[in-house]
Amino acid sequence: MASAEFSLRFDGWGDIPFCNNGNPKSVPNPEFYLTDIPAGTTTVQFYFKNLNVPAANRGASKRLPVPADGRVPAGTFSYRGPCPVNGVNTYEWKATARAENRVSGNAKARRKYPE
Q1: CB–CB of 28/16 below 8 Å?
Q2: 3-state secondary structure the chain
Q3: CA count, 13 A, side-chain hemisphere, 12
Q4: What pTM was computed for the model?
Q5: pLDDT digits over 21-60, tens only?
Q6: Starting from the edge strand earliest in sequence, which strands make up the sheet with 7-9, in order?
Q7: 3-state secondary structure string across 22-49
Q8: pLDDT of amino acid 58
């Protein structure tokens, strides 16, 4: 099975405390919207990173069942939230879709924090 692209969107950071000291806290995920999920996909896993500090591991979700409507509610999992030392950083969520243990697709979405 070839890997395919699908779409990931999130419209904001959700209900998280403001952070700008470089010491991120565990916060709930924002609401995600997935579209064009590859056929046969059984799970999706989310990864989070700061593109300005790519070596910093910000966390990942467990493999989650693929939602029938493509919506992953806010608060489904926790991660180390956005928290630049000063200024604005760009962060990226990556969603990896899997059909059993094979990657069936990837999607990415970026936002700045703070906005």
Answers
A1: yes
A2: CCCEECEEECCCCCCCCCCCCCCCCEEECCCEEEECCCCCCCEEEEEEEECCCCCCEEEECCCEECCCCCEECCCCCEEECCCCCCCCEEEEEEEEEEECCEEEEEEEEEEEECC
A3: 6
A4: 0.90
A5: 989 999 999 999 999 999 999 999 999 999 998 887 778 8
A6: 7-9, 32-35, 71-72
A7: CCCCEEECCCEEEECCCCCCCEEEEEEE
A8: 76
